[in-house]
Amino acid sequence: MINFCNVKVDELTRNTSILPITVADVKAYSKQDFLDTSKDAFINEKIMRAIDGWEAETGFLILDQTFNTSLYNQVEIYSNFKARLTRLNVRSFGNVLYYPCQWNNIDPKSILSTDTYYFTVEKGTTPAIFQLKEGVCYLNLYPVYNNLEIDITAGYEGNNFTNMPQDIKDVLAMQAADLVDGFTGFCGFYEQEIQRIYGKYTAYTKNITF
Prior knowledge:
Largest sheet: 5 strands, antiparallel
Helix content: 25-40%
Structural class: alpha+beta
Oligomer: single chain
């Protein structure tokens, strides 16, 4: 199995208007005494940095967002072909776009018929997998990089974090607190617990990526 790769982060749309944890959450884990709100903006920056780090490392997307991903160098897809996403907490899939084998180098990408493929349901830390439907034996693509691509919507819709696991909220607060406390020499206090929770939610993507 290969992975969808080349996630185009520069094309990512991401809702940062509401965050899953607050400044107060971070202060509760910090080893500093905050006597006023003078450092609140600084703490908010560290919350955003913690979220960025979590999403990049685990692949478990929190903020409501869309992104584009593609198969880097795939020109032939057979009946037993499988391609796995590298992101978790995916909500919906856009059209699969591709250049067919007879592409004229002018026309835009075609939409791959949903009669030919499906995505498996995300399960645990195993992301959704692209497969051809039964009876579809072969799909030939024009030989160009990042041919087959798709826009994907993921994260918590509208940044409603009601159903977000509490331990993810906790790890974000711990990590943000460590980032804040790093300026005073107290960083790393929650390192083991952070690593444990990261491991619990990290997307399984171990294989050869082309």
